[in-house]
Amino acid sequence: MKALILVGGYGTRLRPLTLSVPKPLVEFCNKPILLHQVEALVKAGVNHVVLAVSYMSELLEREMRVQEQRVSGPLALARELLNVDNEPFFVLNSDVICDFPFKDLMQFHRNHGKEGTIVVTRVEEPSKYGVVVFEADSGRIHRFVEKPQVFVSNKINAGIYIFNPSMLSRIQLRPTSIEKEIFPVMAEEGHLYTMELQGFWMDIGQPKDFLTGMCMYLQSLRQHAPERLRTGPGFLGNVLVDPTAQIGENCTIGPNVTIGAGVVVEDGVRIKRCTVLKGARVRSHSWLESCIVGWSSSVGQWVRMENVTVLGEDVIVNDELYLNGANVLPHKSINDSVPEPRIIM
Amino acid sequence: MLKAVILIGGPQKGTRFRPLSFEVPKPLFPVAGVPMLQHHIETCAKVPNMKEILLIGFYQPNEELTRFMFNAQQEFKISIRYLQEYAALGTGGGIYHFRDQILSGNPAAFFILNADVCSAFPLTEMLSFQKEHGEPNSFVILGTTANRKQSMNYGCIVENEETNEVLHYVEKPSTFVSDIINCGIYLFNPDIFQHIGKVFQKNQQDMLLEEPTNGWHRAEAIRLEQDIFTALAGQRKLYVYKTLSFWSQIKSAGSAIYASRLYLTQYHTTHPERLASNKEGGPRISGNVYIHPTANIDPTAMLGPNVSIGTGVTIGAGVRVRESIILHGANLQDHCCVLNSIVGWDSTVGKWARVEGTPSDPNPNDPYTLFSDGKLTPSITILGCNVTIPSEVIILNSIVLPHKDLNRSFKNQIIL
Questions:
Q1: Are the beta carbons of A268 and B317 separated by less than 8 Å?
Q2: Who among A270, A301, A322 is closest to B352 (CB)?
Q3: Do B318 and A322 touch (CB under 8 A)?
Q4: Which residue of B lies nearest to A319 if distances are taken between CA atoms?
Q5: Distance from A228 to chain B by nearest Cα, in Å?
Q6: Nearest-CA residue of chain B relative to A323?
Q7: Which of A190, A211, A6 is nearest to A94 (CA)?
Q8: Of A31, A147, A208, A332, which residue is the catalytic one?
Q9: Across the A/B interface, how many CB contacts are shorter than 8 Å?
Q10: What are phi and psi of B241, to 5 degrees?
Q11: Cβ-based neighbours of A80, under 8 Å, separated by 6 or more
Q12: pLDDT digits (tens, 9 = 90+) for B279-290
């Protein structure tokens, strides 16, 4: 079986992290985002993953060592690659994180026998999204409504699909949005079904949602693989710590914290709702909430960082500073507090 | 023989010192670890021939003031008395009202010191200056130089550069007059009372001509600066001694931190024993720090520069304090960080909390000014007495009035 992951773009929404590393390789809960998806696909029996990439593709290819094939355009370009064995294939956006339901999706798709199935997830505020209106029993899609002002549905496209190869003939070799141009036609012809996702789902394409997604993922780990979470004195709630990280004395870590490989957290540090990426150092008595600390960055003593502060790679935050919602580009040394959210070039 | 008079004001004054002046008369607020007034008294007591120090103000006699005077008399072996005005009489009216007390024993000269200044108090230098310059019966104002913009917040003095005679005096002019400003420290002789007496007589005559008012205007309410110095300028009676040593007003609470820094620096020469040093088993000290011996400080804490720690203060593990005054009985819990702030008596700062202000240099005397949206301009942070800051919050550029239990972070606010 085959799968296509739509990596694409520059990942601008996840800057400053994506100035150093292509988005699919940014570690989400200590594992590259793409690997979360590939592992789930492999588990579902996929043996051939195609990445649709454009930006930093060499780096991506080297890192992933998946298949030799490289696709540099829209879905139509992958036609030859996906159409060889006449089997359904998966397609997914690289930004989404969830308990990937590939086996169930395949089963559901085969059962209804039509051309495509898209996974939907429930949201609280449907007016912010494009929603999917479908038949409750069968899952057959009636229509799509962009940002509905009147409630019609609370289910949105989760960015995870399965298609029969015949669907590919609908796409021409030009820039095409399958969501806007292809799906409505397929729905009209009765060829598009939905399966509702059970469990959590998040588009982690920007820092705020990256952290929210982390909280959801760690909670899911708590339910399915609690042994991977760190517990004991000084750890609160769901905390994921790489075995090579060092945590000092009298720290309180958690809830909802991910600490990457080789990270050093010195004594008396308080961290909650944060991701600390590989090789970073947090010096003693600092306090961090809702932050992403970039690779090999250093946070000084008695620093307070909060409100989705994101440090790019190799940023130095000097002692005793306060960063509120700072977005710091790579390789900067910060000498003054940032009391209100802003970008530090 | 000599005397010194310290003008300590009263409870209606010093509103800019709120919320700290709610708890203690402002002159007794600790600066660099000792009451503001003690710095005055120490230098007065060292002047040869100084026989008595009089405090004049309109505070009701109170326990703190009484205890302070008792202790100071013991320590400095000098007579200290408090003379209470029946109302706020102004800088000239107060001393005129108590002229018999000041002149008893026939002092040849006496100093007048405002309590709300911080200075090296070059009193003996003023005496020598009076002897060497000017007329034998001249009056001397201590002056210092300020920048053009700041000078207009003070009394401005134009001098004869050769004789140092005061040619012109104006209080807080609206345009630039001179960069020499009045430090609020004077050396007078008994003749001054003739000049104040003339103003008193004139005031009384003026009042007879006027309709009876609500009693606010009193013939006795006389301001040395506007009523006396302005008239004496150019009369070969008033001279200015310009000092290069440190000086600052202590009007707002924020300026207490600035004044503390100046006094702590001075301790290197005057009171090295008051400065903490890095010792085995003690906290890490950076720069000038005063720690009261009764304070209990974890060795992993880091203090300084410019920190004063009061009696019975408790400081936990991994606490950081810089540019701050911690008043008696306060409790700073583990890992908290206090920067550019005054932590009030018996207040508690929770674990990993951050209490931070913005230093108000270079003009520490600005009162808190509000933005149009009601937010404070960045100032130092002040926690009044018995305030509780919970763990992990930030209190930034805020003033917290006494006896508040906060439950979240605050920024740029006055919390009533």
A1: yes
A2: A270
A3: no
A4: B320
A5: 28
A6: B394
A7: A6
A8: A147
A9: 44
A10: -105, 115
A11: none
A12: 888 899 999 999
Cβ–Cβ < 8 Å for B324, B307: yes
Read out DSSP for A256-314? SEEE-TT-EE-TT-EEESEEE-TT-EE-TT-EEESEEEPTT-EE-TT-EEESSEEE-TT
Which of B318, B392, B394 faces A285 most closely, judged by CB atoms?
B318
**What is the fold of A207-343?**
UDP N-Acetylglucosamine Acyltransferase; domain 1 (2.160.10)
What region, left, alpha or beta, does residue B360 occupy, with left being phi > 0 and alpha being psi -120 to 50 degrees?
alpha
Partner-chain contact B334 A250, CB within 8 Å:
yes
* Closest of B86, B1, B92, B109 to residue B48, by C-alpha: B1
Residue in B317, B337, B392 closest to A302 by CB = B337
Q: What is the CATH number of domain B2-249?
A: 3.90.550.10
CA-based nearest distance B44→chain A, Å: 41
* pLDDT given for residue A74 in this prediction: 43
Q: Tell me the pLDDT tens digit for each residue of A242-267.
A: 999 999 999 999 899 999 999 999 99
More confident residue, B63 or A211: A211
B406: left (phi over 0), alpha (psi -120 to 50) or beta: beta
What is the C-alpha end-to-end distance of chain A, expressed in Å?
45
Residue B369 has a pLDDT of 42
Interface of A with B in 218-257 (CB under 8 A): 250
CATH 3.90.550.10 occupies which residues in chain B? 2-249
Q: What is the reported pTM?
A: 0.82
Q: Which pLDDT score is estimated for A251?
A: 95
Question: For chain B, where do the domains classified as CATH 2.160.10.10 start and end?
Answer: 275-415
The domain spans of chain A are: 2-203, 207-343
Mutate to test the interface with A, among B335, B373, B410 (most CBs of A within 10 A): B335
On the question of a common fold for A2-203 and A207-343, the answer reads no
| Predicted confidence (pLDDT) per residue in B207-260, tens digit | 777 766 555 567 778 888 888 888 888 888 899 999 999 999 888 877 889 899
CATH 3.40.50.150 is the classification of domain A2-203: no
8 Å CB contact of B337 and A320: yes
Query: Is A147 labeled as catalytic in the residue annotation?
Result: yes
CATH class of B275-415: mainly beta
